[in-house]
Amino acid sequence: YADGEVQKLITAADKARLDKYGETRKAALEEAKAGDPAEVKQLDALLAKPLVAFSGKDLTGNWKCRTIKAGGLSPLVIYGWFKCKV
Known about the structure:
about 90 residues; two-stranded antiparallel sheet
């Protein structure tokens, strides 16, 4: 549940990582631009979409999901869609 409980359980190291989320995200997306041009185009299209808040929404159910890795070992990897359930 998104009830704030994690704030009581989180380690200092994880809190430090979360505090740097914005700059880490920016660096990862910059690295991703060196990836496969077709995947970079997909990433750019995704990032151009408006942000949507999840607060007050029930996300329980069956979904179509995918994983996108930006930066790190490979500049950009976009995996295919898969079924997932919340």
